[in-house]
Amino acid sequence: MSTEHWLGLITGVLFGLLLQQGRILRYEKQLGAMLLRDMTIFKFMLSAVVVGMIGITLLVQTGQISYSHKALNLGGLLVGGVIFGVGWAMTGFCPGTSVGALAEGRWHAVFAILGMMIGAALFAEIYPTLQSTVLAWKDFGKVGLPELLGISPWVVVVVFAGVSAGAFYLFEKLGL
Amino acid sequence: MEAKNVPWWRPYAAGALLGLVAIASAWATTRWMGKTTYLGASTTFVRAVGFVEQAVAPDHVAQNAYFAKEKVRIEWQFMLIGGVFIGAWIGAVLDGSFRWEAVPPVWRERFGPSVGKRAIAAILGGVLMMIGARLADGCTSGNGLSGLMQLSASGFLVLPVFFGVGVLTAMLLYRRRTSA
User: Fold this and answer.
1) What is the DSSP string of A56-123?
2) N or C: which end of chain B has fewer CB within 10 A?
3) Is B32 close to A5, i.e. CB distance below 8 A?
4) Which of chain B's residues have a Cβ under 8 Å away from the Cβ of A40?
């Protein structure tokens, strides 16, 4: 195994362990969020994002790492986002958590994984058509929100952290 | 109930630690792989099915534009997802939460104990989810976690769509029995 493989594996073990410890792998947690009853997955995700965005912004600004933005492709994001949302609610897993849920013994996650592999195969077949239709609609390129708005990344970080703190307060107050 | 044994701060602490892991990973991939690589999951499913198709129809895979773009090989993210399986398994065994489960309890309460029924919904949902994730060029990990951490415009746009449509769909699926 190469360095790349070891890095992926070690990072993945930590990722899986933390997903499991955060209790967000379960179908009931994912559906709990979508039924607005249990915000565990948002407590986990927003905490990760707030900590992560501070470190990533610092490392990018000191020139140690670079961004790898996804394209702001409106067709892909909006159409893909809607299709993903429907599928997410039907399966009760997202791609990463399905694998972790299987490891927790929730073996029905194999159905979601099987479906996703079929979906990936279908996507590979229709990709050329999508490229000339949905994906060709409006692409603003790989851009960060701060550049798009013409503001400092730290403004976005501070606002995001503030909104997250407010959300956490509400979640705890409402017992979600 | 096991849920009562989990302290309220656990998801926050686990999430914050994942934030640190993501920072360390961005730094380490830059240092040792020459390119900053962020957490993601859905491309691995493309590569996984690419391997399956290669076994049956290698020429078809070789000629496919999308497999050519994403490259059917075991790379960093493929190992990452393998690691997720191992890490989740270690955690579940250590804290005693490992349990064989054929149908999720919440699903059973609403739709009954049929494994077939659950399988059909999960397979169809999985198909949709992956087509959506590949159209959006990332799932809740790549576009959600990693996109937001990098302050990507795409992440801020797509995550509310993922979740908003997820809420609508879940409400429709579960509307008949809404008492918590």
Assistant:
1) HHHHHHTTSS---PPEEEHHHHHHHHHHHHHHHHHHS--HHHHHHHHHTT-TTHHHHHHHHHHHHHHH
2) N
3) no
4) 11
Question: At B115, phi and psi to the nearest 5?
Answer: -70, -35
* Rounded Cα gap, residues A97 and B118, in angstroms: 17
Per-residue pLDDT tens listing for chain B (180 residues)? 444 578 999 999 999 999 999 999 999 999 999 999 999 999 999 999 999 999 999 999 999 999 999 999 999 999 999 999 999 999 999 999 999 999 999 999 999 999 999 999 999 999 999 999 999 999 999 999 999 999 999 999 999 999 999 999 999 999 865 454
Distance CA B33, CA B51 (A): 24
ipTM above 0.90, yes or no: yes
Decide if B106 and A112 are in contact by the 8 Å CB cutoff.
Answer: no
For A16, nearest residue in chain B (alpha carbons): B84
Token couple for B53: 């198709």
